[in-house]
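pasting input
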Amino acid sequence: MPRAVVITGPSGVGKGTLIRSLRERMPDLQLSISATTRMPRAGETQGVDYHFMSEEEFERHVCDGDFVEYADYAGARYGTLRSELQTRRASGKPVLLEIEVQGARQVRKTMPEAVQVFIAPPSREALRARLVGRGLDTPEQVEARLSTAERELDAQGEFARVVVNDRLEDAVDELVWVVDAATAAE
Ligand code: 5GP
């Protein structure tokens, strides 16, 4: 079975855009859909972008040991359901997890064979500008995400593979190479 690929990095670094482009290049890639307690944004769909759920439902999954990893992030909870991962992996196709740094650390312990890639911004200023400019969050949320992003940037040294998201096409080229290598390794 191909190894799972974990894409991590600070909020606002462009993980979502990168992954969309990556999936256009590699349509076989299976994206693990996370569970979250945050409210859906405009245009987001239940079961497609996330498994949106209440605090109670999320906590029930925590108690039942249903998560491979989970974390609190900017006032909401996020996690990867074991069942979701199993379904995706059963296809025999490479599976991608897009998660924040605390979750990536847990996956490093529970799934050491997974390939982990840290997506870094070209600079801290670029990240700040992107988080403020994307207009998806309230000012309070932007502040929460910025302070978390600062801490997340400090974690970069823990990751053997770092892809700098400067020019999108270059970053996608690198990711295609990493995912190909992870798939070919089995
Ligand atoms: P957003 O609210 O912008 O969709 O996501 C916020 C952060 O949560 C992002 O850094 C994203 O990668 C992360 N995230 C999404 N799903 C999961 C998950 O299942 N587990 C963890 N640990 N983080 C996640």
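fyi The mean pLDDT is 92.
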